[in-house]
């Protein structure tokens, strides 16, 4: 059985990064090592460096296929199989073969070569991967009909990214290395924008990183490795609001940076029993520092801080948890038990915990703080103090007992009752009061070692013990309740502050509110839906409010659905605040939608305003000239010579003729009806508009060059308005072009737009003055109208805007100004049989 060949794919983020060149360079290297290499199909795209690299390498002859009268060269699969090189070079893996071949796609031909035992080196751009096709279209606006299935690409033995920085690729494009000169401007302004190239580059690197991750998982499964290999670090830093937070964040950022793709997350737990916000200003500064370090800030409310921290870390799949060292002394730790750090370490499981020392890590002995309402733990401590403290106090007092010590004995037991009340509240205090009274009667009041109350005053003493215990317990419980309420309110205010901060920093308001709500209340899922059930924002797992969740009304036509936990009344009250903010965010979104809907009306107003400005400017000069000429004739009477009279009449005729032409022209191109601009949009071939515009200006081959590459595409435009725009742009370009330098007019299509470019190589315009040139009849300070009245760039932009297009200036490579008219393409009628599309590369 023939051993299957190996596939090596060179993956690029965009055309022109050097995939084909790198493939040929690798072919030369392995051929020098004695390997039989042959070119099965390589497309040089007319690039001299690529052709030079291919020169001298063995090549299998191509086959020619005629399709619709056009001769197309394709890879001859049978010839390659017969030649059977050790390594075959096959360019453009996603290429669609001409009809009549053995397979529809070139990757299917490559699959046959691999099955025959031939190793293949091929090239591919990221936009041709099937699963990324729609993502790339969203980024670039250019749909791709040629794709390679992910299963085939993931089956490759080796995938390498041929990388090039976006600006370096643009420089290569501008130099003419990638495309011919007539395609450079359109390419730089469309597909090869810096933003597009950066996004495509990131997409290629992420796809390869995911492929490497899948390969690692496959290796571990194949070798039976069950232990965790954390290739990517996700570091959670716990913030208390104390001054040590900056130290912890920087340490966490360093840990995250040690591995590629590491993430930094900061979390602050607000709770009545949790981490206190001792310095609110410090927490605000730390939140800003998190963003500077490239991390994200989160806030949760939890009854138990260690549990809340560990649960949050697990919910985000954290690998590391960074905590500050305890700020309590040994005595405080002995009295109150293990701290947060020790509990987190015990519950963290496979999450690594870093205890970071800091300047605030050591404190002097201080009384334990009462940090909330009386919990079960506090009550148990109260009972323990009564049970342990009572016998110890009895032993101590019995060892120093005398006839005169009864007063101090009574006060000592009273002190014990007060301490128990402070620690555990009313029930432990009552227990300690009864126990103290009985112990005092048994050990210190005659007759000894018997409980016998024969004096009413002794019974009164026990009653006083109980009253004192109750009073102290009530005060303690009330203080604890107020403290809990105050800290709860502070936590709620801090949560609202965090939510508001997310919105103000530019996050999507609805998504930020839903995300922070889910995190803050420890919910499994949360989502916002409108009255029709359509999802507006969601976070976490899908919610099922009818079974395990709750619904909070948001305004009149939306609902916040929550699932995963029961919420207390105070938490539901906070949710009403969140709901009001969601309602405000929804109203803001509705207002934005309304603003977008009235934008066409505003655009029409701008056109009308520009038109009126143009009229006021251009009518003034010919009217003034005609008035002066006629006035001169009337004043002079018969004293004028024949030549003077003729000159004044000519001036008046010329001015009135120009005025009439202007009014006729403006009324013709604008067709103002009922105070609004009426436009007759139709499918228009740009060539049918460019030619009349050139004829109107009298521009011939010596003054203008054409590079029309829009094919059969047409635009949705008013041909009369579009001609007026082109006349103005061509006149400006001709006026500012150097002597002997021709104006270049190009057309190209990109996504659903067609662009007409008027390119000159004159002095150009500084980028900061781009807005100034669209002020009505601004000619960079030139007020001479002898070259024609014109409509002005302001009116031209108004016309283009009214046709749902754009008019934008750009720098011409090498100097000059390029005016770009972008208009929507007329939708094509679908056909069942289409010619094979070409690859961008």
From TrEMBL:
Q: Which superkingdom heads the taxonomic lineage of this protein's source?
A: Bacteria
- Which reactions appear under catalytic activity for this entry? ATP + protein L-histidine = ADP + protein N-phospho-L-histidine
GO terms of molecular function: kinase activity
> What Pfam families does this protein map onto?
DUF4118, HATPase_c, HisKA, KdpD, Usp
Name where it mostly resides: membrane
Does this UniProt record's set of keywords contain Kinase?
yes
Q: In what residue span(s) does the Histidine kinase domain sit?
A: 614-827
Q: Where in the cell is it found?
A: Cell membrane; Membrane
InterPro entries referenced in this protein's UniProt entry, alphabetically: HATPase_C_sf (IPR036890), HATPase_dom (IPR003594), His_kinase_dom (IPR005467), HisK_dim/P_dom (IPR003661), HisK_dim/P_sf (IPR036097), Histidine_kinase_KdpD (IPR052023), KdpD_sf (IPR038318), KdpD_TM (IPR025201)
**SMART domains reported for this sequence:** HATPase_c (SM00387), HisKA (SM00388)
What top-tier enzyme class does this entry carry?
transferase
Q: Does the keyword Transmembrane apply?
A: yes
Which Enzyme Commission number(s) are on file for it? 2.7.13.3
Task: Kindly state which keywords UniProt assigns to this record, in alphabetical order.
Answer: ATP-binding, Kinase, Membrane, Nucleotide-binding, Phosphoprotein, Transferase, Transmembrane, Transmembrane helix, Two-component regulatory system
Q: Which residues cross the membrane?
A: 380-398, 418-445, 457-476
Matching entries from Gene3D superfamilies are given as:
1.10.287.130, Backbone structure of the membrane domain of e. Coli histidine kinase receptor kdpd (1.20.120.620), Histidine kinase-like ATPase, C-terminal domain (3.30.565.10), HUPs (3.40.50.620), P-loop containing nucleotide triphosphate hydrolases (3.40.50.300)
Q: How does it sit in the membrane?
A: Multi-pass membrane protein
Instruction: Extract the SUPFAM superfamilies matched here.
Output: Adenine nucleotide alpha hydrolases-like, ATPase domain of HSP90 chaperone/DNA topoisomerase II/histidine kinase, Homodimeric domain of signal transducing histidine kinase
Q: What is this protein called?
A: histidine kinase
Upper taxonomic lineage: Bacteria, Bacillati, Actinomycetota, Actinomycetes, Micrococcales
């Amino acid at each position: 059985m023939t051993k299957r060949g190996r596939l090596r794919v060179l993956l690029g983020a965009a055309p022109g990064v050097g995939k084909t060149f790198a493939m040929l360079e690798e072919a030369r290297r392995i051929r020098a090592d004695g390997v039989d290499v042959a070119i099965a199909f390589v497309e040089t795209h007319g690039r001299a460096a690529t052709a030079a690299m291919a020169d001298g390498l063995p090549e299998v002859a191509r086959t020619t296929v005629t399709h619709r009268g056009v001769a197309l060269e394709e890879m001859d699969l049978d010839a390659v199989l017969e030649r059977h090189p050790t390594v075959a070079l096959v360019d453009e893996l996603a290429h669609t073969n001409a009809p009549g071949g053995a397979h529809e796609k070139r990757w299917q031909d490559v699959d046959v070569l691999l099955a025959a035992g031939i190793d293949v080196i091929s090239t591919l751009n990221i936009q041709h991967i099937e699963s990324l096709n729609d993502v790339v279209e969203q980024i670039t606006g250019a749909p791709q009909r040629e794709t390679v299935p992910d299963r085939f690409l993931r089956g490759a033995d080796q995938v390498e990214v041929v990388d090039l920085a976006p600006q370096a690729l643009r420089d290569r494009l501008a130099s003419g290395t990638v495309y011919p000169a007539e395609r450079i401007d359109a390419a730089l302004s469309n597909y090869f924008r810096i933003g597009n190239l950066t996004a495509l580059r990131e997409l290629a690197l992420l796809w390869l990183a995911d492929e490497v991750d899948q390969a690692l998982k496959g290796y571990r499964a194949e070798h039976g490795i069950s232990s965790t290999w954390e290739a990517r670090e996700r570091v959670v830093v716990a913030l208390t609001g104390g001054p040590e937070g900056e130290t912890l964040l920087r340490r966490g950022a360093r840990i995250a940076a040690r591995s590629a793709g590491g993430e930094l997350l900061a979390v602050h737990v607000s709770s009545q029993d949790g981490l206190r916000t001792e310095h609110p200003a410090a927490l605000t500064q730390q939140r800003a520092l998190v963003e500077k370090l490239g991390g994200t800030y989160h806030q949760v409310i939890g009854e138990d801080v260690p549990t809340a921290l560990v649960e949050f870390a697990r919910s985000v799949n954290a690998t590391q948890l960074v905590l500050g060292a305890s700020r309590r002394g040994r005595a405080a730790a002995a009295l109150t038990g293990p701290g947060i750090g020790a509990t987190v370490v015990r519950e963290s499981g496979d999450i690594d915990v870093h205890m970071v020392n800091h300047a605030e890590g050591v404190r002097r002995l201080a009384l334990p703080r009462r940090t909330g309402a009386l919990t079960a733990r506090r009550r148990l401590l109260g009972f323990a103090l009564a049970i342990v403290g009572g016998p110890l106090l009895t032993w101590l007092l019995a060892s120093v007992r005398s006839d005169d010590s009864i007063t101090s004995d009574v006060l000592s037991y009273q002190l014990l009752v007060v301490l128990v009340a402070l620690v555990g509240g009313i029930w432990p205090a009552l227990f300690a009061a009864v126990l103290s009274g009985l112990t005092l009667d048994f050990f210190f009041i005659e007759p000894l070692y018997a409980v016998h109350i024969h004096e009413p005053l002794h019974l009164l003493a026990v009653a006083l013990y109980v009253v004192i215990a109750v009073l102290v317990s009530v005060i303690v419980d009330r203080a604890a309740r107020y403290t809990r309420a105050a800290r709860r309110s502070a936590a709620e205010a801090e949560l609202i502050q965090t939510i508001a901060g997310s919105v103000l920093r530019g996050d999507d308001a609805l998504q930020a509110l839903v995300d922070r709500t889910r995190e803050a209340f420890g919910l499994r899922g949360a989502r916002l839906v409108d009255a029709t059930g359509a999802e507006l924002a969601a976070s976490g797992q899908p919610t099922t409010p009818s079974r395990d969740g709750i619904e909070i009304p948001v305004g009149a036509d939306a609902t916040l659905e929550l699932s995963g936990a029961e919420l207390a009344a105070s938490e539901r009250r906070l949710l009403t605040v969140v709901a009001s903010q969601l309602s405000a965010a929804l109203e803001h979104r509705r207002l934005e939608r309304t603003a977008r809907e009235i934008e066409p009306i505003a655009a029409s107003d701008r056109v009308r305003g520009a038109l009126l400005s143009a009229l006021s400017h251009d009518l003034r000069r010919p009217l003034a000239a005609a008035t002066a000429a006629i006035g001169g004739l009337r004043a002079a009477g018969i004293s004028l010579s024949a030549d003077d009279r003729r000159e004044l009449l000519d001036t008046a005729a010329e001015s009135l003729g120009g005025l009439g032409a202007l009014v006729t022209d403006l009324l013709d191109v604008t067709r103002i009806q009922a105070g609004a601009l009426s436009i007759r949009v139709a499918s228009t071939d740009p060539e049918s508009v460019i030619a009349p515009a050139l004829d109107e200006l009298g521009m011939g081959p010596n003054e203008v060059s054409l590079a029309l590459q829009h094919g059969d595409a047409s635009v949705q435009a008013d041909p009369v308005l579009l001609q007026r725009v082109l006349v103005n742009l061509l006149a400006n370009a001709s006026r500012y072009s150097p002597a002997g330098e021709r104006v270049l007019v190009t057309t190209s299509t990109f996504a659903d737009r067609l662009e007409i470019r008027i390119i000159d190589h004159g002095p150009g315009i500084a980028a900061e003055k781009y807005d100034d040139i669209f002020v009505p009849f601004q000619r960079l300070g030139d007020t001479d109208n002898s070259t024609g009245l014109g409509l002005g760039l302001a009116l031209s932009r108004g016309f283009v805007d009214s046709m749902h297009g754009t008019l934008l200036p750009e720098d011409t490579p090498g100097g000059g100004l390029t005016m770009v008219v972008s208009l929507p393409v007329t939708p094509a009628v679908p056909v069942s049989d289409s010619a094979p599309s070409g690859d961008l590369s």
